[in-house]
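Aggregate trends can hide what the representation actually does to any particular protein. In the encoding step, the backbone of a single protein was reduced to a row of integers, each denoting a local shape. The record that follows shows the chain in one-letter code together with its fold in token form.

***
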Amino acid sequence: MKSKILTSVAIAGLITLGACNKTEQANNVEAVADNAADNLDAMADNTSNGMAADNLENQADAVRDAGDNKADAIENAASHGASNATLNAMAK
């Protein structure tokens, strides 16, 4: 009985560490999207065509939104996956 409890606690700890790694992945996805969007904004600032500048700024906004959405999805998957795995391990 004691070994099952220790195993469950160890598994929960490892799953928690895995969830931390997923959060780091989410942060990386968001950072890459922000960098790409910043580049698009810089291109918009350096263009003399107003319509092209607006288009680039809209693209930058879309890239940021997509990065935020992907990061949120990664974090949600990590938190739900960790919760489910912890409950499953503790049920055994």
The radius of gyration is 21 Å. The chain has a mean pLDDT of 77.
